[in-house]
Amino acid sequence: xxxxxxxxxxxxxxxxxxxxxxxxxxxxxxxxxxxxxxxxxxxxxxxxxxxxxxxxxxxxxxxxxxxxxxxxxxxxxxxxxxxxxxxxxxxxxxxxxxxxxxxxxxxxxxxxxxxxxxxxxxxxxxxxxxxxxxxxxxxxxxxxxxxxxxxxxxxxxxxxxxxxxxxxxxxxxxxxxxxxxxxxxxxxxxxxxxxxxxxxxxxxxxxxxxxxxxxxxxxxxxxxxxxxxxxxxxxxxxxxxxxxxxxxxxxxxxxxxxxxxxxxxxxxxxxxxxxxxxxxxxxxxxxxxxxxxxxxxxxxxxxxxxxxxxxxxxxxxxxxxxxxxxxxxxxxxxxxxxxxxxxxxxxxxxxxxxxxxxxxxxxxxxxxxxxxxxxxxxxxxxxxxxxxxxxxxxxxxxxxxxxxxxxxxxxxxxxxxxxxxxxxxxxxxxxxxxxxxxxxxxxxxxxxxxxxxxxxxxxxxxxxxxxxxxxxxxxxxxxxxxxxxxxxxxxxxxxxxxxxxxxxxxxxxxxxxxxxxxxxxxxxxxxxxxxxxxxxxxxxxxxxxxxxxxxxxxxxxxxxxxxxxxxxxxxxxxxxxxxxxxxxxxxxxxxxxxxxxxxxxxxxxxxxxxxxxxxxxxxxxxxxxxxxxxxxxxxxxxxxxxxxxxxxxxxxxxxxxxxxxxxxxxxxxxxxxxxxxxxxxxxxxxxxxxxxxxxxxxxxxxxxxxxxxxxxxxxxxxxxxxxxxxxxxxxxxxxxxxxxxxxxxxxxxxxxxxxxxxxxxxxxxxxxxxxxxxxxxxxxxxxxxxxxxxxxxx
Length: 794
What we know:
Elements: H1 2-13, H2 15-52, E1 58-63, H3 69-76, E2 81-90, E3 94-97, E4 102-103, E5 106-107, E6 110-111, E7 138-142, H4 143-149, E8 156-161, E9 164-174, E10 186-187, E11 190-191, H5 193-209, E12 217-225, H6 233-243, H7 246-249, E13 250-255, H8 256-299, H9 301-309, H10 314-346, H11 348-355, H12 365-386, H13 395-399, H14 421-432, H15 438-460, H16 464-469, E14 477-480, H17 488-508, E15 511-524, E16 527-534, E17 541-545, E18 553-557, H18 558-564, E19 571-576, E20 579-590, E21 598-602, H19 603-609, E22 617-622, H20 628-638, E23 644-647, H21 657-691, H22 693-701, H23 706-743, H24 758-779, H25 789-793
Parallel strand pairs: 5-10, 6-11, 7-9, 16-21, 18-20
Antiparallel strand pairs: 1-12, 1-13, 2-12, 3-4, 3-8, 7-11, 8-9, 14-22, 14-23, 15-16, 15-19, 15-22, 17-20, 18-21, 19-20
Helix pairs in contact: 1-2, 1-10, 2-8, 2-10, 2-12, 2-21, 8-12, 8-15, 8-21, 10-12, 14-23, 15-21, 15-23, 15-24, 17-20, 21-24, 23-24
């Protein structure tokens, strides 16, 4: 009972610290509960949508001419296969919206079917009760496609085939779980069966006079594993690729596991970033508690000695501190869990726009509680460890006042000057109590480190240097040449067009870099991967080894090679449409293509595998990017209307979804960091105020005003922030890239590169410095309440 009374009295006496710990733990509990719940809900919602539409374990895209009955039967009769479903599709060369430029998603137009069973409502908050049948001239598109292209219901979309175009009005946005996410390359819009049959008939008629139009006709094949097949989806697809012919003729193979991985990659990455941030915040809470306990022991040395003299042993006094801080942590934890409920209800809407599917599910109580109990258990051990100083308190010495403070006790003697009185006093006070400010310095360094890390990550989205180092082709002008199959006319067309294009560009500016390449899906060692065919070495960002020089060499994505155990010098089989050839790995490359699951070869290698190979994309990095629009207009005039010319500049085109997401992450982290800085500085200032109350009275008796003393407090904490900034900046320069490389590895980034620009460094420094200065000045307003007569009372 006496221990309970002591804890209650301690809480009343130090209610500021008690409330601060509650607030800090509330933020951590809210964040942990939200993160683990959303991770579970996103994963399960995508998986449930996939299962509900029963589209199998492998989705395969193949041209109609290559999907013979024999190949379908071979797959259907394979012992690991339960079901094969084949659906017809049409493959337009381009699609565009009314008044907009052409788009380059890999489109497979299909007729509306029973699998289209969820239509987003007008507010995009849920689904309609039913999906009305489409009329002639209407189309449903996946929500991810609409979000990426910035279109809405009622807009017109046009599909361009060679010699024909078809217009459709968007009737609604549907859920398409296989590849409906913004970050999936392929998209499947749906038209009425009447329109699909009409387009198919038109294309068949055109095909009779132009065999090159065979590429307009596709098939989407859904393959389901047998019930007794215990292979993973990836091994199942690899087994079919090795033991049947269909895989080598496919334009692309997507397993259920890959689809769920790619679609959930963005929310998983964002949540992981915040999870790391929460871990850092937890460390800050431990540092704050350590400082608070140490200060309490130091400031109440006499009182604790008296309690010891009255019979309280060190164990009971430790339990007093434990009860006080654990009660605050438990209250904050419980409040955080309850506040997470409305957040988990509304926050998924942020991800639904990119996923194209609605996120269902509530609070993941078991995992959240498990993690929070782990944090509380660590807190118990930490509090008992830090409060061990109580054992060194001597009752006799404490009662006799043998623990008095000695001010300005420092080996470094900094003079106090009249001109900079507040600043020099603040610095002298800091030097005299360095140990008391270690916690504040540590917290400032942690905040600077993480803020600088996150700023570097978001800045990399618009940094040419960082993007290039991570495998991006930073072009200002992109040209897509319109053809599909090999022919002497197309070969001549490409050669003449590239020459014309470069002559036009050089009328305006020089070319810094050229990215001339093509891309297809090929089989590498039984796995269907995207393959880049490079006519220019600049296409590949090689991290080890070199780019391919000969027609039997390839580079492999570094992350994928490490996961598969491939080494430079290994020989791997590459297959395409029944043709197989062994290639030697000559190097590792990085790119965010399919989260790093890719490989590449030069043009000579591509021609040995693909008879109809012609590179159809060329991008130019301009010496003067401001000329890009003029160049684009000139190029459009000389190229075919089916060809596409697009411009891009990372310094200007910052409205992409990726950029907006990165900026939102940075904004949230800066806000939470500011809240933590406010709480931490408030606690530190409050304790300093109590400790120096007599000093403040002395200063006032000497003529110092409240404004002078507030400024002195603020400057002192600015000095604290300065040392934290030095440590945090050093940590960032040393560790930030390693941390981000670890966090972003699942996106295919083997080594994240931060382009340390002026604002990358300045913004976190200014944010932390101003937070410490302003919040210290704000809390130091208590100096107004201290009067000279307090000295007499004391």
